[in-house]
């Protein structure tokens, strides 16, 4: 059994044929993951006990002849901003280094109810703020394709775990690109669902109006199956949608002839040449598969980064106020007064990027600046959303690059926040509009670095997005 290449379908067949038990697979997967972790630092915590307990439940159900669920026995990794009962959840922050949550996120509960085996919690940028995983308090993650390079961020650990094969699928979170960009850098499938499609209950809040939970997989099929398990209304998240969840797998029929695709002019400007070449080849491929591709324009794109960094930091400054040394977190040992205690706890606990964002967010919300920055950004957000509404009146889906460049070297951009923020220039717009979008592997650069193609679709139109991505994947990506 080649653990690193297993698919959900193979696991189902293997379990039913009694070639291995869920407990055996889990033990092997944990051992493999621990070994690989020395190279990549993708995991912060292994949840061995919990994983084996789930695996035993799957084996018992199988023995009784019951249906063990669509994800039975599948090793899953979960980004460490998603809470897990009894299993340490750090959010990549020193402040929460010892925090053990008393409850499970809804997505985690649904994964396990479907038989998924959570083997560990993955490294990420502190509170999901970053594009390279270098903002983790527990050290960077190394890209399995090139160990001197970043895996992308902020869900870098989840992307790396799936790429190296230590998990078959993983959960990440995306606020401005944190699923699609690391998926692209690590050569795996990563998907940001429609806002509200997946409950955020138990996802540590960064920017609540932009936060999404979504899956990573090595194939479109695996990612689609995970989404079908975690999606759907949850009374514990008032922003989760009532919309019915289709059977996504039924839509993976390869039928994409006649699909109308838009290629946004604004997304092709700042590409490094190799990424641009791969996207151009992908577009040619899609045309050969029968899609009709036309140029479109999303004119408000130029304002997306500025708009995002006003709204996201504003919401973050408010959400991070709860880490005060009284609840959840460790407390500074050296304080004489209450206000000193707050100041010292937060001063010692937060890393530089979180502090930068708390300051910026507090500033844009402050009296006198609120109208000029925050309110203005909300208006720009509406324009960005309107661009997509107009585009989808003409086309069925949009194809674009995920990131202007492939994985960069560890250390290369960490001292230049503005250069780092540009990593997300093509992904931020989808979050601002709340539409579903994904990264599907497209090919590799001459140096062997993966490049992803992005697909964006209408609200709640994940099924069509999956169908397109799956047909592209079956046809071998951008390769001839
Ligand atoms: N890289 C972006 C940021 O730093 C997006 C992060 C995310 O999607 N969580 O905010």
What does this structure look like?
- Helix 9 crosses helix 11.
- The model has no long low-confidence stretch (mean pLDDT 96).
- The radius of gyration is 21 Å and the shape is globular.
- It is of the alpha/beta class and 480 residues long.
- Strands 1-3-2-4-6-5-10-11-9-7-8 form an eleven-stranded mixed sheet, sandwiched between helices.
- The chain has 15 helices and eleven strands.
- The longest helix is centred in the last third of the chain and has 25 residues.
- The chain has a domain of 249 residues: Amidase signature (AS) domain (Amidase signature (AS) enzymes), CATH 3.90.1300.
- The relative contact order is 0.13.
- Helix 8 links the parallel strand 7 and strand 8.
- The protein starts with 7 loop residues before the first helix and ends in a 6-residue tail after the last helix.
- The protein binds glutamine.
- The site of glutamine has 14 residues, from strand 4.
């Amino acid at each position: 059994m080649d653990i690193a290449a297993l698919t959900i379908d193979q696991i189902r067949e293997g379990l039913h044929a009694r070639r291995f038990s869920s407990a055996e697979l889990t033990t092997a997967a944990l051992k493999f993951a621990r070994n690989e972790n020395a190279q990549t630092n993708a995991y912060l915590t292994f949840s061995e006990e919990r994983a084996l307990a789930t695996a035993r439940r799957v084996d018992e159900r199988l023995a009784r002849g019951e249906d063990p669920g669509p994800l039975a026995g599948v090793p899953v990794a979960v980004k460490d901003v998603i809470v897990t009962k009894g299993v340490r959840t750090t959010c990549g922050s020193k402040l929460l280094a010892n925090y053990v949550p008393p409850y499970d996120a809804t997505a985690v509960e649904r994964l396990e109810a479907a038989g998924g085996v959570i083997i560990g919690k993955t490294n990420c940028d502190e509170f999901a703020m970053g594009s390279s995983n270098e903002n983790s308090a527990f050290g960077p993650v190394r890209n399995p394709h090139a160990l001197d390079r970043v895996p992308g961020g902020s869900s870098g650990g989840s992307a790396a775990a799936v790429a190296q094969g230590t998990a078959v699928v993983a959960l990440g979170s995306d606020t401005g690109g944190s699923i699609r960009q690391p998926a692209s850098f690590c050569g795996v499938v990563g998907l940001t669902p429609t806002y509200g499609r997946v409950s955020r209950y138990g996802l540590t809040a960064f920017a609540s109006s932009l936060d999404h939970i979504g899956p990573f997989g090595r194939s479109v099929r695996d990612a689609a199956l995970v989404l079908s398990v975690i999606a759907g209304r949850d009374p514990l998240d008032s922003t989760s949608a009532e919309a019915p969840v289709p059977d996504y797998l039924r839509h993976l029929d390869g039928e994409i002839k006649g699909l109308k695709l838009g290629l946004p002019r604004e997304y092709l400007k700042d590409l490094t040449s190799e990424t641009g070449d791969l996207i151009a080849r992908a577009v040619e491929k899609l045309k050969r598969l029968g899609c009709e591709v036309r140029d479109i324009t999303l004119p408000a794109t130029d304002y997306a980064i500025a708009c995002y960094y006003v709204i996201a930091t504003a919401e973050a400054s408010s959400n991070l106020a709860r880490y005060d040394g009284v609840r959840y977190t460790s407390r500074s040992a050296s304080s004489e007064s209450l206000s000193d205690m707050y100041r010292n706890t937060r001063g010692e606990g937060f890393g530089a990027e979180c502090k930068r964002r708390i300051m910026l967010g507090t500033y844009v919300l402050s009296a006198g600046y609120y109208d000029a920055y925050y309110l203005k950004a909300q208006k720009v957000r509406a324009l960005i959303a309107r661009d997509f509404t107009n585009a989808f009146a003409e086309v069925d889906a949009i194809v674009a690059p995920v990131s202007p460049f492939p994985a960069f070297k560890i250390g290369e951009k960490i001292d230049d926040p503005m250069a780092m923020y540009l990593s997300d220039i093509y992904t931020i717009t989808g979050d601002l509009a709340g539409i579903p979008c994904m990264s599907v592997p497209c090919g590799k650069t001459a140096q062997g670095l993966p490049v992803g193609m992005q697909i964006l679709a209408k609200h709640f139109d994940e099924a069509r997005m999956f169908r397109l991505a799956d047909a592209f994947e079956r046809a071998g990506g951008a390769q001839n």
